[in-house]
Model the fold of this input.
Amino acid sequence: MEQLRTPRRGGLAIGALALALGLGLTGCSADGYSGASPEVSLDGGVAPQVAPGIDGGFLDVVDADRSVIVTGWATILVDDPAAAAAEATRIANAAGGRVDSRSERAPTDYSGGSATLVLRIPAAKLDATLEELKRLGTVQDVSLSASDVTLEVQDLDARISALETSIERLEALLAEASTTADLIELETAISDRQAQLESLQAQQRYLSDQVAMSTLTLDLVTEPVATDPPPGDFWEGIVAGWDALGKFAAGLLVALGAFLPWLIPIGIVALIVWGIVALSRRRRASKAARRTSPADDQTPQSPQPQG
Done:
C-alpha cells in the first residue's frame, strides 16, 4: 500500500506546483498593462515629450527608455508623381527602411496623376528622412502621432520571463518523474505553456518592429488641371459657340471617316439584294403576262344562219 500512495503524493505535489506557477503568471499578467497609450499628435501638445510643429525633431526629446510607436502622413505637391515615387523609394532604402506598398494613378483630363507609398523608416532616422522627402516638392500637409507602448512592452517581457521560468521548472520535474501519469501531466503543462510563450514572443516581435520602424504614408499629388471658365459676355459666348461648332464638325468628320470603309461592303450587299428582288419581280410579271395572253382569251364563234 505504501508503494501505491507514494506516487499519488508525488502527483499531487507536482499538480500543486503547476497550479502555483499558473497563479503566479496570472498575477503577473493582471499587474501588467496591455492597453496602448493615447496618441500624441502634433496638433495639440498633450504630452511634454513631443515637440509641436512639423519643422522640429519629433522624437528629439523622447526618453530613450520608453517604447513609442510613431506613425505619420504627408502630402507633397510634385510635378511628376512617378519620378517622385521612385526618388522617395530611394530615400527610404538609403535610410535603412523599406516600402511596404506603392500605388500609382495615371494622369486624366482633370488630374496629373498621383502616387501613394507606405514607407517603413527607422525611428531614429525619421526626422532626417522626412526632411529629405520634403524636398521632392511643395509640402501640403504633414501629421505625426506617437503611441506610448512602454507598459505593454514591459508586461510582455515580464510574462515571457515568468513563462520561461515555469517551463524550466516543469522540465526539471519531468526529468525526475517516476510514473506515467506524472509524465503525461507534466508534458501537457509544458506544451500549454510553450504555446503561450510562442504567442507572447510573436507579440513582442511585432511591437519591437513597430517601435523600431516608424510608418509614414506619403501621398504625391499634382496640381488639378484647370477647366475652361464659362463665357463672361456676349462675344465670349459667340467664340465659345463657334469653337463648339468647330469641334462638332471635326467630330462629325471623324465619325464619317470611321464609317466610310463600311459603305463599300454595305453597298455591295444592297446591290445584290436589289438584283435578287428585281429578278424576282420580272419573273412574276412574265408569268402573269403568259396567263393573260390574247390566245388564251379567244372563244369559238357560233355559225351565222343563211338567209
Notes: The longest helix spans residues 234-291. The chain has two domains: 11-221, 231-278. The two ends are 170 Å apart (CA to CA). Helices lie at 2-31, 81-94, 126-134, 150-176, 180-212, 234-291, 294-297.
